[in-house]
């Protein structure tokens, strides 16, 4: 409490005791269930990606080009499912399994784009597009620069 | 002058204001819940033909408040104040609803405790002789709250098991100096209590000490015990907060017995996947205006205590690592 001179709360539980009580009464995250679901959903998403890679290879693309094309396809699917209002349901079920793959990244861009369209295309969509993906980009790019510099000096 | 105060923080009305009418509107999910039949109106979708959720929320509030006026059949000229609040920044839903309704307006912010707060302040205005009739109402909307306080609605994230689901709903009452209906006999305005909970996914835990503090002061001020009430309902602690408030009160020497519930627990059932229950200004408002008012009128509840509970943080204060200051406001309604 900010001011110790004021009349104290009337309840006979101290903040320290309450902290323990709150921990005891707050339901624990369902870790095992979440991990199993994330494993399945993440695996299915990656398997679909692999199917696309194999498809593109049979259509005559080189392995590395097929992987790029498959990534683009998965991004498209993630965006499409977000637009159709399906991806958030997958995310609720799959958790990290659907957030970590590239489809989750697509979801994190398209969801704010849809959300902030009503505030206009410049200060709405434009300004808020990266509210979720922004931190990933900032630290992803920053890390890649650091790794790049280290690599340069080691070789 | 004869003060209408009792104890530390309770006011007792000399001429208890009458609840002349009550009106509630909810969204589809609330309509499917166990109290679905008790609401005046259920919207079929979250937008209700509006271009944005914000427009839908303010329309819902305006319709609920107009509904309460129409139901009471009192001309607007005899209503002296409109008191309203909601969860959005600068309480815009209330401001825009007040623009349409056109009565002298007092905007209130008590987060999810705003319904109880507006009933307490409205009753004080009437019993103080400043108003003949006062229109009170609040609203919340799941999607407007979600985008303001959490993440975009289409974002694929998992909610914590202790998280509560913001109700889409608006409730309104018309309070009057005289007439037929249940009466608001006393009110205990709460103090801000902060027991250092920082998890915005666990509001029930943040608010429970504030609610317990208000209940304890209320009962002490009026020298009553929990069994003097047919029902005491907080609004809205959810399952986690309700259990915590009960435990805190027990440790403070006050066993609440079986007549202690929570609007956020009543409005949804466990099959609706809301985790720890409901929250939002609209929750206690529609549960009170619908279910509770019906039970009071049916004679099932003779004396009822509504304890509105509010988490008074903002998304900025939460991001800056501040704990969640909380409050509880209690109003007594007697048949």
UniProtKB/TrEMBL annotation, chain A:
<feature type="transmembrane region" description="Helical">
    <location>
        <begin position="35"/>
        <end position="57"/>
    </location>
</feature>
<keyword id="KW-1133">Transmembrane helix</keyword>
<feature type="transmembrane region" description="Helical">
    <location>
        <begin position="125"/>
        <end position="154"/>
    </location>
</feature>
<keyword id="KW-0812">Transmembrane</keyword>
<dbReference type="Pfam" id="PF03862">
    <property type="entry name" value="SpoVAC_SpoVAEB"/>
</dbReference>
<protein>
    <submittedName>
        <fullName>Stage V sporulation protein AC</fullName>
    </submittedName>
</protein>
<keyword id="KW-0472">Membrane</keyword>
<dbReference type="InterPro" id="IPR014203">
    <property type="entry name" value="Spore_V_AC"/>
</dbReference>
<feature type="transmembrane region" description="Helical">
    <location>
        <begin position="93"/>
        <end position="113"/>
    </location>
</feature>
<dbReference type="InterPro" id="IPR005562">
    <property type="entry name" value="SpoVA"/>
</dbReference>
<feature type="transmembrane region" description="Helical">
    <location>
        <begin position="69"/>
        <end position="87"/>
    </location>
</feature>
Automatic annotation (TrEMBL), chain B:
<dbReference type="InterPro" id="IPR038369">
    <property type="entry name" value="SpoVAD_sf"/>
</dbReference>
<dbReference type="GO" id="GO:0016746">
    <property type="term" value="F:acyltransferase activity"/>
</dbReference>
<dbReference type="InterPro" id="IPR016039">
    <property type="entry name" value="Thiolase-like"/>
</dbReference>
<dbReference type="InterPro" id="IPR010894">
    <property type="entry name" value="SpoVAD"/>
</dbReference>
<dbReference type="Pfam" id="PF07451">
    <property type="entry name" value="SpoVAD"/>
</dbReference>
<protein>
    <submittedName>
        <fullName>Stage V sporulation protein AD</fullName>
    </submittedName>
</protein>
